[in-house]
């Protein structure tokens, strides 16, 4: 975006804000830990202290000088009273500078325009509180339900009324002037607040024009329906070996990088059919193509989205990863009721789901640029290993550590006729084994369970989503 070097952006050491070094801990006395500074420290700054490879995050609410007096900022040396145990030479980083944020706030758009209110107030004993409010050429009148009584101690003064009524911050109004007529009367604060609330509401109603209801006639939609064709397996092949495995298994619909248009591409070259489209820009660019398949990245979760894509010329719609079994059934039923026929759906039933797409390749940080062509890499943490899938343009997709596998649930999806196998990190032999297992399941009534809980996941399929 700003012509930055991806190698400098990617941080392999920590996922959060690193901050910039401003000094280190150099001692401790009765005033607290001594901090020797290389950059100024201001009251309110947020710090990160690196103590024995463990982060201590805090806000510099109280800064002391050598005499133990509170100070607002320090440039060379100061003291912080902390409960945590620190060591000499612990590095101190600033992760948020309060002055910088204050400067940013000054650049924000100023407050919206407020409209002046002029009031005529009558507050007499044994009469209701009466207020006439004028604003923007409109007048409204307020009268309290209860009468007022003489003040025993402190009567309501004009200044007190103005102070209470002018609390209009949550409205578009400001108090301009008050004509105040009163005779030693007591008015509770709650009564003034109620008057303010009702007056602003009535001014809103008086100033806003009454809009006529617009009757909209729902345009008749052309019904789009498809016959239930024989069930087919489709394959997304990341590598040439995976493509060869699919061809050797007799798969006729294969998606590769040659006929896949990712979301947010800036160019749309000519491509082979069928086209797997990841975004609406691609659908528009290839709208004359008769063999468009929308990908899971369009996140289709309802029948209206399916209809819209079909109406835009998409031959087959891939459902979102995030749908469960019940939602899929409801989508198909809803579409059928509205169109007197079925939608043409595709669903990914095997493969590693995308967790993250980034333009910043983590391999560059290790000076391994280009090695993704010959080796496999993954990010590893306490939750598992997440494969790195590098693209030709050096963008990167981080894949799920577990494999979505619905091989034991195909018969529950009898109204979906295209099941996709999404191959990413599999070898040629692994790909052929997977494809043969799915083909066997589709051709036979074999009830053998092939789901492996150690390596596989069913994703959202059996989950109840509230």
From TrEMBL:
<protein>
    <submittedName>
        <fullName>DUF3656 domain-containing protein</fullName>
    </submittedName>
</protein>
<dbReference type="InterPro" id="IPR051454">
    <property type="entry name" value="RNA/ubiquinone_mod_enzymes"/>
</dbReference>
<dbReference type="InterPro" id="IPR001539">
    <property type="entry name" value="Peptidase_U32"/>
</dbReference>
<dbReference type="Pfam" id="PF01136">
    <property type="entry name" value="Peptidase_U32"/>
</dbReference>
<feature type="domain" description="Peptidase U32 collagenase">
    <location>
        <begin position="92"/>
        <end position="208"/>
    </location>
</feature>
<dbReference type="Pfam" id="PF12392">
    <property type="entry name" value="DUF3656"/>
</dbReference>
<dbReference type="InterPro" id="IPR020988">
    <property type="entry name" value="Pept_U32_collagenase"/>
</dbReference>
């Amino acid at each position: 975006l700003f012509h930055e070097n991806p190698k400098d952006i990617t941080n392999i050491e920590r996922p959060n804000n690193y901050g910039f070094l401003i000094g280190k801990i150099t001692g401790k006395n009765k005033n607290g830990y001594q901090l020797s500074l290389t950059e100024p420290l201001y009251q309110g700054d947020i710090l990160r202290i690196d103590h024995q490879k463990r982060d201590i995050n805090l806000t510099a609410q109280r800064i002391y000088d050598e005499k133990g007096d509170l100070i607002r900022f320090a440039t060379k040396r100061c003291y912080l009273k902390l409960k945590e145990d620190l060591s000499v030479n612990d590095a101190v980083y600033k992760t948020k500078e309060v002055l910088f944020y204050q400067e940013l706030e000054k650049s924000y758009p100023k407050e919206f325009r407020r409209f002046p209110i002029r009031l005529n107030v009558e507050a007499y004993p044994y009469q209701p509180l009466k207020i006439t409010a004028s604003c923007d050429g409109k007048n409204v009148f307020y009268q309290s339900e209860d009468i007022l009584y003489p003040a025993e101690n402190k009567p309501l003064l004009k200044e007190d009324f103005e102070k209470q009524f002018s609390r209009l911050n949550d409205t578009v109004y400001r108090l301009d002037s008050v004509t105040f007529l009163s005779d030693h009367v007591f008015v509770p604060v709650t009564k003034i607040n109620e008057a303010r609330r009702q007056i602003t509401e009535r001014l809103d109603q008086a100033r806003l024009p009454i809009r006529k209801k617009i009757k909209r006639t729902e345009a008749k939609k052309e019904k789009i329906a498809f016959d239930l064709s024989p069930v087919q397996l489709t394959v997304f092949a990341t590598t040439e070996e995976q493509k060869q495995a699919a061809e050797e298994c007799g798969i006729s619909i294969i998606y590769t990088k040659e006929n896949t248009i990712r979301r947010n591409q800036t160019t749309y070259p000519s491509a082979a059919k069928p086209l797997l489209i990841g975004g609406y820009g691609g659908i528009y660019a290839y709208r004359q193509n008769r063999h468009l398949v929308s990908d899971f990245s369009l996140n289709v979760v309802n029948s209206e989205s399916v209809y819209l894509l079909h109406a835009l010329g998409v031959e087959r719609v891939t459902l979102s990863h995030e749908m469960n079994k019940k939602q899929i059934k409801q989508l198909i039923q809803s579409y059928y009721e509205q169109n007197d026929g079925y939608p043409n759906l595709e669903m990914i039933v095997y493969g590693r789901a995308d967790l993250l797409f980034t333009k910043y390749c983590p391999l560059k940080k290790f000076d391994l640029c280009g090695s993704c062509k010959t080796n496999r890499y993954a990010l590893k943490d306490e939750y598992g290993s997440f494969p790195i899938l590098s693209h030709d343009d050096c963008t990167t997709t981080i894949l799920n550590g577990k494999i979505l596998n619905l091989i034991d649930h195909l018969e529950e999806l009898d109204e979906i006729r295209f099941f996709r196998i999404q191959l990413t990190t599999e070898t040629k032999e692994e790909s052929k084994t997977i494809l043969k297992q799915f083909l066997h399941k589709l051709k036979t009534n074999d009830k053998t369970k092939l789901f492996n809980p150690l390596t596989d996941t069913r994703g959202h399929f059996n989950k109840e989503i509230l």
